[in-house]
Amino acid sequence: MTGRLDRTKPCIALITAILALSTLDLCAGDINGTVKFKGKPRKPRPMKKLAADTACAAMHDTLPVDEKFVYAESGEAGVVTLGNVFVWVRGGLPETEYEIPAEPVVINQEGCTFVPHVLGIRAGQDLEIRNGDKTAHNVNAQPKRNKGFNNAQPPATRPLIKNFKREEVMVKFACDMHTWMSCYVGVVSHPFYAVTGKDGAFSLKNLPAGEYEVEVWHELLKTQSQTVKVADGEATSIEFLYAKP
Ligand SMILES: [Cu+2]
After folding, report:
1. What pLDDT score was predicted for residue 2?
2. How far is the CA of 204 from the centre of ligand 1 (A)?
């Protein structure tokens, strides 16, 4: 039994090496990073106005909290990792047309909240807005560079299919029937964007070698940017640190 295991070891090592090679693009590089916040984090606040709406309140056992400041412990004293941050390459990319995914990006209205709260989409890509609730919503998209829309969406109706033609970071969405409802959509003309989870981590993969302006956006803390160099076959690590203004 031991001998057999020993013989499989080199084979496993070889397969691992081949797999590693196949995921490493030698003609592109990655940017991996973390977004953090230094200071006393704002506590998530219960959506009190939601409680006053009978139909919406009935959808929850406990009152949901807002997602304006989503964070986790970072391991460093006084510093937390920050979620719901939109990260994108703002400048430095070659003028190339990137194929637009055929699959739509989905926003759902669920328990009288937009899910997700922060998301990204390609300019020209379909956005499918669903109403998963047994109550009516009114989707009010408020872009500045794109065409806005304002559509009532009764329960059990077909999703709205929309798209934004131009790059715009960010487009705010609200619901005219429920003032606490909001979400933010980053519309980007290329595939190099991400939204951080609670751990603050993001990854922008397969960028051509070059020098880029990477920008981060947070609903309450606004924007920051950094110049980042990317080399072929390498991953560059960066960190963004917000502090209380
Ligand atoms: Cu609503």
Report:
1. 40
2. 33
- pLDDT for 244: 80
* Ligand 1 mean position, distance from CA 68 (Å): 17
The predicted structure's pLDDT at residue 8: 55
Reference 81, options 235, 236, 240, 245; nearest CA is 240
- 218 CA distance to ligand 1 centroid (A)? 23
Q: What is the pTM of this model?
A: 0.89
What digits encode the pLDDT tens for the residues 156-200?
999 999 999 999 999 999 999 999 999 999 999 999 999 999 999
Stretches in the chain below the pLDDT threshold 70: 1-25, 245
Q: What is the pLDDT of residue 95?
A: 87
Question: 126 alpha carbon to ligand 1 midpoint, in Å?
Answer: 21
Identify the structural domains of the chain with CATH numbers, from first to last: 28-243 (2.60.40.420)
Measuring CA to CA, which residue among 180, 197, 153, 214 is closest to residue 30? 214
Of 111, 109, 110, 107, the C-alpha closest to 62 is: 111
Distance 148 CA to ligand 1 centre (A): 17
Among candidate residues 89, 162, 178, the one with its CA nearest the CA of residue 124: 162
The token pair that represents 48 in the structure block: 């009190």
Strands (E), 14-104: 29-38, 71-73, 79-82, 86-91
Closest listed residue to residue 100, CA positions, set 230, 10, 187, 213: 187
Beta strand 29-38 pairing with 201-207:
antiparallel
**Cα-based distances in Å from 11 to 6, 17, 18, 70, 208:** 10, 10, 11, 44, 33
